[in-house]
Design brief:
By secondary structure, the chain is an alpha+beta fold. The chain has 2 domains: 215 residues, Jelly Rolls; 106 residues, Homeodomain-like (Arc Repressor Mutant, subunit A). A hairpin with a 2-residue loop joins strand 4 and strand 5.
């Protein structure tokens, strides 16, 4: 049985154990604070940033026992949730079943003024880490018109002030999403640029999230065995990042043929196999360049004959030379 904490008890414990480490509000309306707190079941440290109808909250919580938070909402918002470590379960009356979030999964909610429950679970060796980005319903609706059955239902929930989830299962965080999350969590832009940078990254992340979830509407036209195979191919590409591969060999490895793999992969994920593979590789390249990898060594690792060819391909993909990341470190 988890330890159950109600929202008023959480507030009381939070404010009696709250330690604020940094807090400031900029003239442009960006507010940021860092704090830590103790609960009866664990300790945590958090960062909150808010501006122009966008709220970002992230941090970690080390739990000594599984914990359930029974919360009550007093305003409406759309929430992008990304589970980075640990295990979280959302329980709410608008969900037909509890929504599970293992590490590396995400989803999109609209939460109205209702009572809900959230279970937090982490092992002794792993803390609970996550990123929540909340948007005002007006901000969200102004950017995302109806497009597909799931989005129509989601936007209808916002219009009627009825809590909703874009899809009643969580999805894997893609490498492209991980790169954006890394950029948000490690944003070191000057305050004059921070709001602009974060708002653009939030929009990029939201677009990737919606695109990935909407691709599930194509699932009904593919047999179950084909979908399982395609997700296995996708996971393989994400885990290997090979310098090169043969589509024919890849198809044979997963028990299909080249033509079928090309057609079904594009149908399910909206990109060709090679487009998806290249986007993974160059997102990886951008990340390791920021971490200090040399251009020459990275070019070799990615299968290019020389650094110049790699730099040309990198600039074509990202619109900027890889040397930018070396000079900005």
């Amino acid at each position: 049985m988890p330890t159950i904490i109600k929202s008023d008890e959480l507030t009381e414990m939070f404010y009696t154990s709250f330690v604020e480490h940094k807090s400031h509000v900029q003239p442009d309306g960006l507010a940021e604070r860092e704090f830590s707190c103790d609960l009866s079941t664990g300790k945590g440290s958090f960062t909150e940033i808010s501006f122009d109808g966008i709220y970002l909250g992230y941090g970690n919580l080390a739990l000594s026992t599984p914990t359930q938070i029974q919360y009550e909402l007093h305003e409406e918002f759309v929430t992008m949730f990304f589970a980075l470590e640990g295990h979280t379960v959302y329980r709410h009356e608008f969900l037909s079943r509890p929504l599970q979030f293992d590490a590396g999964h995400h989803n999109l909610f609209f939460m109205s003024e209702q009572l809900g429950k959230k279970d937090w679970v982490s092992s002794k060796s792993q803390s609970l880490k996550g990123l929540e980005i909340s948007l005002s319903p007006q901000f969200f609706s102004s950017f995302f018109p109806e497009n597909g059955r799931q989005m129509h239902k989601f936007l209808k929930g916002i219009l009627l002030s009825q809590s909703a989830v874009l899809c009643e299962r969580s999805f894997s965080i893609t490498p492209a999403m991980r790169q954006i999350i890394h950029d948000i969590l490690h944003c070191d832009k000057p305050m004059a640029l921070k709001k602009l940078f974060l708002s653009s990254r939030v929009m990029d992340l939201l677009m990737l999230q919606i695109e990935q979830i909407q691709f599930t509407e194509n699932d009904n036209t593919l047999p179950k065995g084909s979908k399982e195979r395609l997700y296995a191919v996708k996971n393989y590409l994400e885990s290997k990042l090979e310098p090169q591969f043969s589509l024919k060999t890849l198809a044979a490895q997963f028990g299909t043929n080249e033509f079928t793999l090309k057609r079904e992969f594009k149908q399910l994920f909206g990109k060709s196999v090679f487009d998806y593979w290249n986007s993974l590789r160059f997102d990886y390249a951008k990340r390791v360049l920021k971490e200090g990898e040399s251009i020459k060594q990275l070019a070799i690792k990615m299968g290019y004959s020389n650094a110049q060819n790699f730099s040309t391909a990198f600039k074509k993909r990202h619109g900027i030379s890889p040397s930018y990341y070396k000079t900005s470190n």
